[in-house]
Amino acid sequence: GHRVEPGEIEAALLAHPSVAEAAVTAVPTPGGDLTLAAYCVLVRTGQEPAGTEEGPATGVGAGGDGLWAEPLRAALAEQLPEHLVPGHFVALDRLPLTPNGKTDRAALPAVATAARPAPGRAPLPGAETLLCDLFADVLGHGPVAPDDDFFLLGGHSLSAARLLTALRSRTGAELPVRALFDAPTPARLAPALEAAEAARRSAGALPPLVRRTRPERPPLSFGQRRLWFLARSHGEDGSYNIPLALDLTDRLDPDALRRALADVAARHEILRTVLPVHDGEAWQQVLDIASAEPALGEVAVPEAELADRIVAEAARPFAVDHETPWRAVLFTAEGENGKPVRQTLLLVLHHIAADEWSLPPLLDDLAAAYTARLRGTDPRLPRLPVDHADFTLWQRDAVAATEDADADYWRTRLSGAPEQLTLPWARPRPDRTGGPARTHDFVLDAELHQRVQALARQTRTTTFMVLHAAFAATLSQLGCGDDLVIGTPVAGRDDEALRDSVGFFINTLPLRTTLHGTPSFLDLLARTRDDDLAALAHQRLPLERIVAEVNPPRLPGVSPLFQVLFAVREEFPDRPVLPGQTGRPRLVATGAAKFDLQCTISEDPATGRATGQLEYRTDLWDASAADRFARALLHVLDQATTAPEHPVVTLRTAFATVMAPQPRFLPATSPAELCAAQAARTPARTALISGADEVSFAELDARSARLGRLLAERGARPGVLIGVSLPRNADLLVTLLAVGRTGAAYLPVDPDFPPDRIRMLLADAAPALLVTDRATARSLDADPATVLLLDDPATARAAADAEPLAPRPAHGHAPAYVIHTSGSTGRPKGVVVTRAAVVNFLLCLAETLDFRGSERLLAVTTVGFDIAVLELFLPLITGGTVVLADREQVRDPALLAGLIDTARPTVMQATPSLWRALLDARPDAVDGLRTLAGGEALAPDLAQRLIAHGAELVNLYGPTETTIWSTAGALDATAADAPHIGTPLWNTRALVLGRGLVPLPTGVTGELYLAGDGLALGYLGRPGQTAERFTAEPGGPPGTRMYRTGDLARLRADGTLEIVGRADHQVKIRGHRIEPGEVAAALRAHPAVEDAAVVAHQDPADPAPRLVAYLTGLTGTPETRATTAARVREELRTVLPGHLVPDLCLPLDTLPLTPNGKLDRNALPAPRPAAAPAGRAPAGQREELLAALFTDLLGLEQVSAEADFFALGGHSLLAARLATRAADVLGHPIP
After folding, report:
1. Long-range contacts of 368-373 (CB under 8 A, 24+ apart)
2. Mean pLDDT of all residues in 281-301
3. Are 352 and 224 in contact, with CB atoms under 8 Å apart?
4. Is residue 490 part of a domain?
5. Residue 690: which CATH number?
6. DSSP reduced 3-state for 509
7. Are the CB atoms for 11 and 38 separated by under 8 Å?
């Protein structure tokens, strides 16, 4: 896995005084990996050998004893990283040369052909000798030398555990698994073993596992007690059955098999143990052999029904309080003629009495017993060193010996871990754990599995660690986060006495894997190695104790600590257990889930292959999700083992498609030119209705052309910015069109904003000219030289006399407008949108919405909100009519409904908040309207109401930075249950990307990026923020950019996009995009406030989110602080526009922080006022009814008669709901 420059090693060799010439190359090992070999020509002293360190090299002179290489290896180890120290050293008389005089590397002798008459130096007496013997015994290897590497000899995590168990049995010394990984040779491990033996002698050893005197009622082991409790609380459902099937072509002898099963039960008393209850606690009652002989069921079934009958029997629960925990059924499959075709023996064990490590010794005993019984002899199975009850008593001592250290480790390790892992493609989680399950099988081909093994050897890890890291990386790349807790079973057979026992010895450990930062797969593997080894060093603490120590929140339907389990097991041997057996023994799925997902990799040492199985809850996944996950895991594993040095975030889980419609050609034009061309086609049509005024296309065009001339004379031209701050009347639209005709860009500024806010926007954008009225100009103390007053008589006369200005041509990349959005730093950002982007948008929407010229579009959006571009200009380029609602009509849904009655619009665009207020006020007002919704999330209930009343519903989505809307989708009644945002508009690409900007597959949540012709130029005067949000598009055409929306989205199977939340803290309130940081900065500037936090709160009783601020530093009694908070909120109105003013300000002593010192948003208290302002109680029926409505809408317990609705958290749309409900209660409308 490491990139190696041989020249670097050769230089280090040549620097050694004993080396005259050197060449380094990679050579194959017997296992198929590559290792480094150093070929050295030694400085002549008359005593040098010519051969390998282990013996003579092929074709070279006499070999030495290999000791010459040790000083050289040690010298290199001091200078170079471990992976650069050669594994082999070969001494040569001379280096072979090519005709050109260069080293002929192809002619270097093969290390693999070197003879090895002896296994290196002899081991030292004591620990080294013992370790060499145990290495050879555990690995089934020939003689092992002191410097042989355990893992290079074929060791892995399971054999490592067996080695340490054997060491404990022989010496009593406790060595952690990490010790073997850190010192994998007998020579290096010997000092650690000697130190552990010395520590054992001084501190006292753990009592050995031997037979013990049993109490009257032997208790359950920790693991048994956990399963017993689960069965008592949730009921037995077969999920903890372990069914094992053996398929047979020959017929078994039922009598011999029955006696053989009894022999096995006689040897393993756990198989004849029941768990009765006494005083509320279960205990182990071992039945005598005669009364606990296992029954053998014999069932004949039609061959077509065999598989289903096996599954049904496998899932049948046990009653462990009175039923022994295993059973056997011999199925005989019959053909159509009723004759036996084949048999299957099914053994079913309850997990409370066995684990998967118990199955090989169980099968060995069954094979020996059946063979003996067929011959008519007693198998004489030897008595086990200990029984399960002895283990249970010993386990309590073993756990107590390290309990404090283990508990401290797990508390620390799992502190702050995520409460749950949500799988990709998962449906909403039920309120219960477990439930039905299915399985999905997949295969790791031989070549991939060999790469897994090679990477494990190269990195001094194990195949489990490589597969565990790849599994975690897959989950992370599929949107499950970068902090994962995954369960894994460990054998728990810490003593040689348990080697051949059947029993429940395993423990399950919650392994936490973090992928923070941008680690390479090699880095992740190193983290996984360290984390797994640390966990194994504390594996004795039972899972239920770990849960109790960590004490995670208990959530409905969520298993504590982890919901996903990963395991690597060794496949059953291919030798037959019973005569006539075909294939290997196989585990049978029970159809009941223990976890949300369990992934098991089965390795076959005989063939070098591996298979995988996913067991998943059908409540959460279907078969297609399991198949996609398996493909993703294999894809990640393939990339990780091919190029492990690459960052994990670049690993792809699938070949995802970018959502992009066919490119559309755009004419070289501008919005002003499009409007002028339409005016020429339909001059007499009504273009604008504003109050009592009706303006034709011809008049609108003429007025904008004459005003355009005045603006041009004042410097308006392409590349210049013109501010526009006017009331909602005809002059507003005339001015916007006039600015467009000059080629300049307009800066819309709502005159209803606080003067300080307007001054901030103007100072930030620095427009060359501000078009406004006298009232606004006075409030701003504007410089007359940079202001054009439309209501000044002189301006009116000049405009009337001006020569009409034809639309000026300008480059498509010239700015069309600059609109400010909320900024996280406390200052709004100006987004610069081009003329070509607006043209692309308008022409696309004209076709998408099928505007044909008869539309009457009711414009309700403030000009400072970019979606007003659609309302003001789309009708003007298609021959329709703009119906311009005034300021009061926009704010009052009842007045807006009245305008709909009189103006008879056919289409209206609004935010979901406004649509809800209008429907609450007058549902019939929406009847027959084409409804366009956007600007914030569209709730299913609102979508259904709009579809029920309106003629058609289109859901729109897009940030200001990508020109108003970027996607559109029509919703019908079915789609309204889960509203989507449709597909991209013309020349727009939507990318759902994960960590590392890797495209994600369908159904997986990632961050949404937008690219294409709609992208803005960036933020005015903010190159740093522009570069942060507008980045290069991976895989896009050269030079293209994309915009990071910050929205979380997923591509649905029907090809539409769905928004599922935010990746940051930005929120949408009543359609306005809000950066809480901007509001918090304004609050901190108030002298009474020390610190502030601002969040969006969604109350279940109110579908519209509210902006809530938490303030610290307020002094006085709780009532005084609440009053101060309300005053701060009111004073904020002079600084910020209404949509940025929090609905509620709450005083806090301190803001809650995470362990990392950041704001803990989840720990902020529920947003309720500390106390309603004191005052007299409501008097009379009317006041009491209104007070009741206040409390209901604002979520308060009570309010006084003088309580201020807005000071308590009310806002304009909530006020509209209040007015509607009050009218219903009181019987007359409230203005």
Report:
1. 369/259, 369/260, 369/261, 369/263, 369/264, 370/252, 370/256, 370/257, 370/260, 370/578, 372/260, 372/263, 373/253, 373/255, 373/256, 373/257, 373/259, 373/260, 373/263
2. 92
3. yes
4. yes
5. 3.40.50.12780
6. strand
7. no
Q: Report how far apart the first and last C-alpha atoms of the chain are (Å, whole number).
A: 75
User: From the CA atom positions of the chain, what is the Rg in Å?
Assistant: 39
Beta pairing, strands 967-971 & 983-984:
antiparallel
The count of residues in the chain is 1231
Number of domains in the chain: 7
Q: Which pLDDT belongs to residue 1158?
A: 55
Residues 783 and 801: beta-carbon distance below 8 Å: no
Residue 888: CA count within 13 A, CB half-sphere: 5
CA angle 505, 229, 504 (to 5 degrees): 10
- The whole-angstrom separation of Cα 1226 and Cα 1203 is 19
Nearest-angstrom CA–CA distance, 508 and 503: 15
- In sequence order, what are the beta bridge partners of 881? 856
Non-local (6+) Cβ contacts of 520 within 8 A are 644, 645, 646, 647, 648
Range of the domain at 354: 234-383
Exposed/middle/buried for residue 438 (C-beta within 10 Å: 0-12, 13-18, 19+)? middle
Q: What dihedral do alpha carbons 231, 237, 243, 245 form, nearest 10°?
A: 160
Cα separations in angstroms, 449 against 158, 467, 602, 1129: 17, 10, 11, 63
Please indicate, yes or no, if residue 1070 is contained in any of the structural domains: no
What mean pLDDT do residues 111-126 have?
60
d(CA 1199, CA 1190): 7
Lowest mean pLDDT segment, chosen from 489-498, 998-1007, 1145-1154: 1145-1154
1006-1012 and 1041-1051 as β-strands: parallel, antiparallel, unpaired?
antiparallel
CATH number of 443's domain: 3.30.559.30
3-state helix, strand, coil in the chain (%, to 5): 40, 20, 40
Question: What does DSSP say about strands 721-725 and 769-772: parallel, antiparallel, or unpaired?
Answer: parallel
Q: What is the model's pTM?
A: 0.72
Amino acid at position 91, single letter = A
With a pLDDT cut of 90, the percent of the chain lying above it is: 57
Same domain, 1006 and 1100: no
Q: What is the pLDDT of residue 515?
A: 93
- How many CB atoms neighbour CB 307 within 10 A? 15
